[in-house]
Write a structure and sequence with these properties.
Blueprint lengths: L24 E6 L5 E3 L1 E2 L12 E2 L2 E7 L2 H9 L6 E3 H4 L3 E7 L6 E2 L13 H4 L3 H14 L3 E5 L9 E8 L1 E3 L6 E7 L2 H10 L3 E3 L12 H5 L1
Parallel strand pairs: 3-4, 6-13, 8-9
Antiparallel strand pairs: 1-7, 2-11, 5-10, 7-12, 9-10
Length: 218
């Protein structure tokens, strides 16, 4: 499927591209306690995969710079008004302590415009195009990308797409440590409330109502 986009192709080189400022923490929500899943594709033109997935044997792990950003990244990629409460009970919250920030390209920096980027790097559904940018940054020597989250209309939260070996990794990258715990439903409910999204449980009982008399005659 061809998706119209105003995002151009990456340039021949990205040397000197602005780097993201150091960060103290990163956050990730997942249904599994294993924090470091690096998603990959079978090529930049693959029809499946995430925005910045790299071709195997490399991959990309998606995190956010705050719990709010992680909630948006995991639960609000598509526009929704209600989140099922029981889904939160199945999730884990990973907090990554960053002692040493790796070289990460800052796709939100103003000077990124001079390299041919526009804001569609964060929003376009042409993932084959965004993955070619990810490949170009990886080849330049960057170990990840700082980007905006398509589900965050305020564009205040930032996502961090970190590069690594494809698949599940049991250890954090150098300079980072992880703490995994069950997701705190109350914390997420506060985040969703600020975003105007409701948290509702699955109904335990569904009332059965007799059809109107007119419907019975048909």
């Amino acid at each position: 499927m061809t998706v119209a986009t105003g995002l151009g192709e990456p340039p021949d080189h990205l040397l000197g591209f602005p780097e993201a400022a150091p960060v103290d923490q990163l956050h990730r929500l997942s249904e599994y306690p294993g924090s470091w899943w690096f998603a990959s594709t079978d090529g930049a033109g693959s029809d499946t995969g995430g925005r910045f997935d790299l071709p195997a044997p490399h991959g990309t792990c998606y995190l956010a710079d705050s719990l709010a950003g992680a909630v948006v990244e995991k639960l609000l990629r598509a526009p929704v008004k209600v989140v099922v409460a029981e889904r939160l009970d199945e999730m884990f919250h990973t907090v990554v302590t960053v002692r040493r920030t790796p070289p990460v390209a800052d796709l939100t920096a103003r000077r990124a415009t001079g390299y041919g980027l526009n804001a569609e790097i964060h929003t376009t559904l042409d993932y084959s195009r965004t993955r070619r940018w990810a490949i170009a940054f990886h080849r330049t020597g960057f170990r990840g990308l700082r980007h905006r989250l398509r589900g965050d209309v305020s564009q205040r939260s930032a996502g961090w797409a970190l590069f690594g070996s494809a698949g599940l990794r049991h250890r954090a990258p150098n300079g980072m440590s992880t703490a995994v715990r069950q997701l705190d439903r109350a914390e997420v409910e506060q985040v969703l409330e600020r975003l105007g999204v409701e948290l509702r449980p699955i109904p335990s009982e569904v009332p059965i109502v007799a059809p109107p008399r007119d419907a019975r005659r048909r």
